[in-house]
Amino acid sequence: xxxxxxxxxxxxxxxxxxxxxxxxxxxxxxxxxxxxxxxxxxxxxxxxxxxxxxxxxxxxxxxxxxxxxxxxxxxxxxxxxxxxxxxxxxxxxxxxxxxxxxxxxxxxxxxxxxxxxxxxxxxxxxxxxxxxxxxxxxxxxxxxxxxxxxxxxxxxxxxxxxxxxxxxxxxxxxxxxxxxxxxxxxxxxxxxxxxxxxxxxxxxxxxxxxxxxxxxxxxxxxxxxxxxxxxxxxxxxxxxxxxxxxxxxxxxxxxxxxxxxxxxxxxxxxxxxxxxxxxxxxxxxxxxxxxxxxxxxxxxxxxxxxxxxxxxxxxxxxxxxxxxxxxxxxxxxxxxxxxxxxxxxxxxxxxxxxxxxxxxxxxxxxxxxxxxxxxxxxxxxxxxxxxxxxxxxxxxxxxxxxxxxxxxxxxxxxxxxxxxxxxxxxxxxxxxxxxxxxxxxxxxxxxxxxxxxxxxxxxxxxxxxxxxxxxxxxxxxxxxxxxxxxxxxxxxxxxxxxxxxxxxxxxxxxxxxxxxxxxxxxxxxxxxxxxxxxxxxxxxxxxxxxxxxxxxxxxxxxxxxxxxxxxxxxxxxxxxxxxxxxxxxxxxxxxxxxx
Amino acid sequence: xxxxxxxxxxxxxxxxxxxxxxxxxxxxxxxxxxxxxxxxxxxxxxxxxxxxxxxxxxxxxxxxxxxxxxxxxxxxxxxxxxxxxxxxxxxxxxxxxxxxxxxxxxxxxxxxxxxxxxxxxxxxxxxxxxxxxxxxxxxxxxxxxxxxxxxxxxxxxxxxxxxxxxxxxxxxxxxxxxxxxxxxxxxxxxxxxxxxxxxxxxxxxxxxxxxxxxxxxxxxxxxxxxxxxxxxxxxxxxxxxxxxxxxxxxxxxxxxxxxxxxxxxxxxxxxxxxxxxxxxxxxxxxxxxxxxxxxxxxxxxxxxxxxxxxxxxxxxxxxxxxxxxxxxxxxxxxxxxxxxxxxxxxxxxxxxxxxxxxxxxxxxxxxxx
Lengths: 595, 369
Ligand SMILES: Nc1nc2c(ncn2[C@@H]2O[C@H](COP(=O)(O)OP(=O)(O)O)[C@@H](O)[C@H]2O)c(=O)[nH]1
Ligand code: SF4
Prior knowledge:
The complex is a heterodimer of chains A (595) and B (369).
Chain A: E1 4-11, H1 17-27, H2 45-50, E2 58-65, E3 68-75, H3 84-92, E4 96-102, H4 109-120, E5 124-130, H5 139-150, E6 158-159, H6 168-178, E7 191-200, E8 204-213, E9 216-217, E10 221-224, E11 230-232, E12 235-239, E13 243-246, E14 248-249, E15 254-258, E16 272-275, E17 294-300, H7 306-319, E18 324-330, E19 334-341, H8 344-358, E20 362-364, E21 368-369, E22 371-375, E23 379-383, E24 395-410, H9 414-423, E25 427-435, E26 438-446, H10 447-451, H11 454-461, E27 466-478, E28 480-487, E29 490-491, E30 497-500, H12 504-518, E31 526-532, E32 535-542, H13 558-573, E33 576-578, E34 581-583
Parallel strand pairs in A: 1-3, 1-4, 4-5, 5-6
Antiparallel strand pairs in A: 2-3, 7-8, 7-16, 8-15, 9-14, 10-11, 10-16, 12-13, 12-15, 17-19, 17-20, 17-21, 18-19, 22-23, 22-24, 24-26, 24-27, 25-26, 28-29, 28-30, 28-31, 31-32, 33-34
Helix pairs in contact in A: 7-8
Chain B: E1 2-8, H1 29-43, E2 51-58, H2 66-80, E3 87-92, H3 99-108, E4 112-118, H4 122-128, H5 134-146, E5 152-158, H6 166-175, E6 180-185, H7 193-199, H8 208-224, E7 228-231, E8 234-236, H9 243-249, E9 253-257, E10 262-265, E11 268-272, H10 276-281, E12 285-289, H11 292-305, E13 310-311, H12 312-318, H13 320-335, E14 339-342, E15 345-348, H14 350-354, H15 356-363
Parallel strand pairs in B: 1-2, 1-9, 2-3, 3-4, 4-5, 5-6
Antiparallel strand pairs in B: 6-8, 7-8, 10-11, 11-12, 13-15, 14-15
Helix pairs in contact in B: 1-2, 2-3, 6-8, 11-15, 12-13
Guanosine-5'-diphosphate (GDP) is lined by residues 11, 13-19, 39, 51, 130-131, 133-134, 161-163 of chain A.
């Protein structure tokens, strides 16, 4: 046990986590240079393109230091706030954390909240300034920030470059010398925590765990304490570049278990694995059933593909238990599903995976958060879809989820960031200068406001110099109204949204304007209206297309023109007919990107 | 039968709405002509002789001095032979219609002029940012006619937003006594100065309804003056339809020489890079083989631009299934009086022409992928 080191990496996106991780794998010989794919730890396509490790993984390395051999387990953490629960479990599985900070950028909001999580879990923090090869590195200033933040000694902050390999050895040495070895009673009953799981089409669900006490052997009968399900450990092992089977694993080890589980939802991150016959008296604390935060309808563009969509969603759910869905129908869109997501990024990922991996063309409707409606007769109802909101006359009150939003930005942008948050119904809670020109601002604001074009605007008002993180803080009563959108007089349920009463007029106007830009002209006028109940609050018209003709078409124009018209026809196939109006996919998400 | 297109990439000055490839710097003229001769030499065998038409387009071919023109034509003759049957067109700007130029063209065997008149209204002409005056057009035309050019086409741009009195402008056009009129609605091409003006809201083009009104007025006036509306943007007196341009719409082979020129033969398209300095060093080009689907869609697109329409017998011989489903698709348009079908030809009605892009794309064959 004393030669095991379990650690994770805390870093803001693009600060170089993947690059440095690759270096560690390379230096320890875990992966040969030849096999080193860029960013080894990210293996889903989408992740690689976004540069975000969405699902956490773990990998074991061997390293010798001072004549002794060590086993290092790197537990990777997802880098986005949508997956903060998964991050918290990964952190709970470690004794140490590398805090990687881009020396040209300094600390970001996301990093801070994960860092606090790590500190709360008593992890040994090893700060590393990365990208030291860049001339724009400002090590002294960033060291100031780090010192202030974690109260460490200046000389304990390492300098490295994932790009050149500079400082990588000192990082390995620090992991061995500074991260404590795991502790725990190896003879006590088995107590292991699941921190991640993946779906393998041949083996079913593979759960990753960390043993806190006791040991596990192949073919043991085990029980998952929160779900209460019992299994046989068909295969256990450790995670090298490929999984390697073992006959037994012991206290402090990080490993995987395969036990014929087919459904991702049976394996919950944070759950405790113990022996069926000699169970631990106490499950590991901190388990939560992750609840979706954002809901949206997903519909096939082609109504005939409903069954196919259901199939695809079921398959997706096999490896992504945080996705929830149930059938719903919409007058405008026909049959589809109301889906629950951890956040907006998660929603985008699901939509992208449906398109890429399952070749489904889908329409995603305006997302909303989950509301609590108190009705006069039936009491509390949870509303996941604007059209489920009871009539105003039946309604006592509505509550919406609030969050604590932390934003770190340069002091130059503080004014703009504050106005944005206030416009988003935020209430300022705290303001701290981290250094002379970096400020952390804390706001309490409705989660729903984050869903509507918050990230993009934050980015633009701060010229990219703002980072953002949030945590839910419960429900609060709100003055919400349902805004409907009508196309040529027909209400399009899939475009309805629940919004704050004070925003209704300006939002209605913006949405109508946006739709006017997105809905292509047809052979008749199209009226776009926003309404609160029977009251029209905004109106735009897409003028009829009365001519559509190319003037010149000679030798050089023919190919280009043909391709253009072909594209036009393909585009139409991706549209959805509502009444007599052709509506493009993008229109359903129009409200998210209002400028 | 085939056509030859020569792209002359020079202009006096850039017109704000134009997206053709040209330079205003004339120092490239000599190397261009040399490179062009090289290309003629290298690619002559791609076309079957005899050729039916030669077309000097641009750019502004009338900027070539008589010696340059003669040299190019001599080279062409050397490779493709010579016949009086060939339709030999030069695009000319009104300001270049000097006695000297016209004489020399005549001598070279040029028998058709396409003159960039654009408009006979001084205000409108100014708005278009052209290099000439209305007077240049009128005088130049008279000169050309006096010298015996009997096959002349003039351009007319409409829908610019400056049409105060299109009706009388058309009367002026008719008085020119030409054989062919190309009438183009002004189009905003991406990347042009005009596009930037429109983008900034400093220039607005006409609304759809005004475009329609002008299009229909032109049709009515020109047809009643004896011009056939043989292609969406082209009108001709009987027998004066442009042979060269018709070869594009009837998908006959053509060889395009010069930077940015396109060629078409054996169901394959090729286009030269739009870069004169490179052209002078080493010609770069791209090529694309047309799939059955591409060929079908082009046949629809080019066929429907013409009064004659799409030859259904010929089309269904080549693409029986696609033609059948296209004909089914067209029923709705026929009902809406946007199309007509008779004698096994499918064509656009006058109203249909105004919606031709929409209709074509609907009739296209698109793979279910
Ligand atoms: N110059 C320099 N660039 C680096 C270094 N480490 C990472 N990068 C670059 O920074 C970007 C983000 O790195 P990546 O490892 O994907 O960051 P992650 O999002 O934290 O995993 C990539 O373009 C890397 O090539 C470094 O030490 N020096
Ligand atoms: S003269 Fe013709 S080719 Fe030259 S810029 Fe003007 S429109 Fe374009």
